[in-house]
Inverse folding.
């Protein structure tokens, strides 16, 4: 992390390529450093000048009088490989590269040589890694750290001090945001232009900034992500304690292509980015207008308690527009209590609206505004309040704003709510909006932008709730993974890569899917014979490895009711193949009995291999013009029941699927269960590259796969690394035996374990909990329990010791598991060391469970390649201290601080 510290907390800076020419980046950076009043040494490097902007310059890097923490490289692209090597030899640990064009492919000097010639960017990065140097860029605008008075950028605009960090891949977006923020008096803790992000990326910055005391919220402008696994892991961790908003460009295919040209990143589906952002607990905004509104809201708002919005206005029309915008975005209008209505009626004209929106009438003066707002603040009828004002001679813009600001500052309950304002108009209204902003209340020019800002907070709250929701366990006992692998291996051994329904059916049935029986016929006569046996009506479908899309030649014929119809249909299919694909191989036909479709709905579910996020699940309605960019809801595996439900609800809300009133409604839990099965199938079977289920016949809770195709390929890599989120690591499951002979299952914790974990904690004594947490924790709420059970297996591990079927639930009369102990290891983002903790039920001491859990943790940390395990306990926790000493931990008792530090090296010095 030395490079990150040198980057974000530099005490000295060198500018390579400094210039006295005001049109050069090297001059702009020097002037920005001086105008920002950076307190550390600024060392220009240039062979052209003795001094730059009055500062003594050095002819080369080697002649610098000290090793700078940070270098800003302002030279041409072709010089930067050598410059980075010189900086590395000097000992510099962080550098910002401004030059563009370094990721362009290099032409080989020998035209007959076909080997890959690394780009300048690749050569530069290799040099940086050789010296453990970290790089920002290339194609970066630079870095601004207002709290350090540091402006190491070539931006024409500086940044004020504030609590928002902004990270962008686009320099142009940076300057636009800075210009707007200056006007709005909004400040930043960190302002960084990543450029092409060849080295330091969003993930590392999220890991660092989420621990920064000066940062309350983080904004990201993303063209593309290179390491989806690392990005999502960092985002999920950061989103638990910082508000994170994302503006992702490339929403269209054309925009994605432009983003690829801009930063060189892979082109992924925009809908998959959308799913990744939601899954990580972040919030996406769709354009710079929304981003501006979101920044303003973040700068002044507190977390929402709920989603109810109250609207106070002196004009009915603008309020109606606000309500329309709220309804369009799925927001909730607060309902006023009778007590609030009565109090408002006592001070408002009789013709006021008597409901929300609260229309206090066009002749409202400043006093009426104050009275109405005070009554609302005294109530608990809402969570957010939008105060609207249309130009009025009775309640002038500026005077009304000042009076309300004074009243809001004095009211003791103001900070309980989110207050937003909409002062319509220009001139004086603009001054009033600025007055609100400076007073700490976000101000918007239109009703729609105010509602958009409020809904950003609502959607963020919903994403955070999704991040913490406890799923219902459905178990995986009906999954026959071994048999599925045997089926796939046999197909691959026979060089079969594309599977049609009859070939995919045995694999799907291993995971509990209901499929239609399918028979193979070689000709029309055999098709007729099969149809007579299984009963009419039937469907016949072409089998040809050379024709992937049967619809191209009408290779599927449905609802055949007689032998004559079957014979004619088969012959017609063969004739069309002979006409359009005369050389195509024909492997006969598939014959299926027609499913009963009365009252049923047809859906389509695909597994798509995204170039950035790996396997993703797509769902929509089955139609001939299926477009994954437009028609599909998207989810990233692994899925549990809660995440699958979010996918289904999102698909319903966005119209990707519809609950059709004439049909039997979709059973949402049943559909969620099927999605979880698909998720587990593609996790367990990495050989599956694509899966298409269309249609899936849905009739209430009956879900039947009518037609499916699957693409498979041999797989030899790490099956988990291809996924954007590490799934449940089943490989760590094992059984263990206690001293009393009791057999337990030792396994990683699951999100579904929250109820078990709550019961477990209730069985630990107050004294033991105090030793574990260093304080009285009382009863843990849902949010705390969710943090214990919903972990990121890439960064954290928790093993639970479970007694299977050890308890009878009196309500359901079913056997339940019991958690008897838990061991945790939380590693740093660099996978260098891990902090551990162990807790055993107070009535289970003395049976050897603590030793079993400790050994499990040590072995896990060694497998992860960690170098150290550390822990902290209290001097009175003799059992923990003895256990740690027994395993080999060094013990450092610090009586003055009342703590005991434990340290275990996991690798030999000679190995390191």
């Amino acid at each position: 992390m030395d490079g990150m510290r040198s980057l974000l907390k530099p005490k000295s800076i060198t500018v390579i390529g400094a210039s006295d020419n005001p049109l050069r980046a090297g001059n702009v950076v020097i002037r920005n450093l001086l105008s920002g009043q950076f307190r550390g040494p600024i060392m220009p490097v240039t062979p052209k000048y003795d001094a730059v902007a009055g500062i003594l310059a050095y002819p080369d890097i080697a002649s610098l009088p000290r090793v700078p923490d940070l270098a800003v490289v302002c030279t041409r692209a072709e010089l930067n490989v050598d410059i980075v090597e010189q900086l590395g030899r000097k000992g510099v640990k962080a550098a910002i590269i401004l030059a563009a064009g370094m990721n362009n492919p290099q032409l080989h000097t020998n035209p007959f040589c076909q080997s890959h010639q690394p780009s300048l960017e690749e050569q530069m990065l290799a040099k940086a890694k050789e010296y453990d140097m970290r790089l920002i860029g290339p194609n970066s605008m630079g870095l601004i750290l207002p709290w350090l008075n540091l402006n190491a950028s070539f931006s024409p605009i500086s940044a004020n001090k504030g609590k928002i960090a902004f990270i962008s891949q686009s320099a142009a977006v940076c300057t636009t945001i800075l210009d707007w923020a200056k006007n709005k008096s909004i400040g930043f803790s960190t302002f960084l232009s990543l450029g092409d992000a060849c080295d330091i990326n969003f993930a590392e910055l999220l890991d660092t900034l989420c621990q920064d005391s000066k940062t309350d919220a983080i904004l990201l402008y993303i063209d593309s992500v290179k390491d989806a696994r690392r990005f999502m892991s960092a985002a999920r961790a950061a989103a638990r304690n910082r508000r994170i908003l994302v503006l992702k460009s490339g929403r269209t295919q054309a925009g994605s292509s432009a983003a690829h040209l801009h930063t060189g990143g892979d082109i992924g589906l925009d809908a998959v980015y959308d799913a990744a952002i939601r899954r990580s607990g972040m919030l996406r905004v769709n354009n710079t207008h929304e981003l501006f509104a979101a920044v303003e809201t973040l700068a002044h708002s507190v977390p929402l308690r709920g989603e109810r919005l109250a609207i106070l206005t002196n004009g009915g029309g603008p309020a109606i527009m606000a309500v329309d915008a709220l309804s369009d975005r799925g927001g909730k209008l607060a309902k006023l209590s009778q007590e609030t209505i009565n109090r408002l009626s006592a001070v408002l004209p009789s013709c006021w609206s008597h409901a929300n929106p609260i229309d206090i009438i066009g002749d409202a003066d400043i006093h009426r505004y104050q009275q109405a707002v005070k009554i609302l603040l005294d109530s608990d009828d809402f969570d957010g309040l939008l105060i609207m004002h249309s130009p009025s001679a009775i309640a002038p813009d500026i005077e009304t704003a000042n009076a309300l600001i004074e009243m809001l500052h004095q009211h003791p309950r103001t900070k309980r709510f989110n207050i937003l304002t909409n002062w319509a108009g220009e001139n004086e209204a603009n001054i009033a909006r600025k007055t609100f902003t400076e007073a700490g209340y976000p101000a918007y020019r239109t009703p729609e932008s105010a509602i958009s800002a409020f809904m950003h907070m609502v959607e963020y709250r919903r994403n955070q709730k999704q991040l913490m929701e406890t799923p219902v366990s459905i178990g995986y006992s009906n999954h026959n993974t071994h048999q599925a692998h045997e089926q796939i291996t046999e197909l691959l051994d026979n060089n079969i890569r594309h599977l049609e329904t009859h070939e995919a059916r045995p694999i799907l049935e291993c995971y509990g899917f209901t499929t239609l029986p399918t028979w193979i016929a070689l000709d029309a006569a055999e098709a007729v014979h099969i149809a007579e046996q299984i009963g009419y009506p039937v469907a016949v479908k072409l089998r040809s490895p050379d024709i992937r899309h049967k619809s191209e030649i009408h290779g599927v014929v449905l609802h055949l009711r007689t032998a004559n119809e079957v014979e004619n249909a088969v012959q017609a299919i063969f004739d069309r193949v002979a006409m359009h694909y005369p050389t195509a191989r024909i492997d006969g036909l598939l014959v299926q009995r027609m499913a009963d479709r009365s009252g049923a709905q047809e859906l389509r579910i695909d597994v798509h291999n995204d170039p950035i996020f790996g396997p993703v699940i797509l769902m929509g309605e089955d139609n001939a013009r299926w477009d994954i960019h437009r028609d599909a809801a998207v989810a990233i595996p692994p899925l549990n029941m809660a995440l699958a439900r979010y996918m289904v609800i999102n698909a319903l809300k966005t119209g990707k699927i519809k609950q059709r009133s004439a049909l039997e409604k979709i059973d949402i839990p049943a559909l969620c269960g099927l999605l979880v099965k698909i998720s587990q199938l593609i996790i367990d079977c990495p050989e599956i590259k694509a899966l298409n289920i269309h249609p899936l016949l849905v009739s209430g809770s009956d879900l039947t796969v009518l037609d499916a195709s699957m693409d498979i390929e041999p797989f030899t890599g790490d099956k988990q690394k291809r996924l954007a989120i590490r799934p449940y690591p089943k490989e760590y499951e094992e059984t263990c035996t206690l001293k009393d002979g009791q057999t337990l299952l030792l396994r990683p914790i699951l999100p579904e374990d929250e109820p078990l974990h709550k019961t477990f904690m209730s069985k630990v004594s107050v004294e033991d909990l105090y030793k574990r947490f260093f304080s009285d924790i009382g009863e843990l709420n849902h949010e705390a329990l969710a943090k214990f059970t919903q972990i990121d297996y890439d960064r954290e591990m928790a093993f639970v010791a479970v007694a299977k079927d050890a308890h009878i639930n009196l309500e359901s009369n079913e056997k339940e598991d019991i958690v008897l102990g838990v061991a945790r290891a939380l590693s740093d983002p660099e996978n260098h060391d891990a902090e551990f903790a162990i807790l055993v039920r107070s009535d289970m001491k003395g049976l050897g469970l603590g030793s079993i859990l400790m050994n499990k943790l040590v072995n896990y940390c060694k497998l992860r390649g960690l170098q150290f395990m550390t822990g902290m306990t209290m001097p009175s926790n003799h059992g923990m201290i003895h256990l740690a000493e027994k395993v080999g931990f060094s013990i450092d008792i610090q009586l003055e601080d009342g703590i005991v530090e434990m340290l275990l090296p996991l690798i030999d010095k000679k190995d390191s």
About this structure: The mean pLDDT is 89.
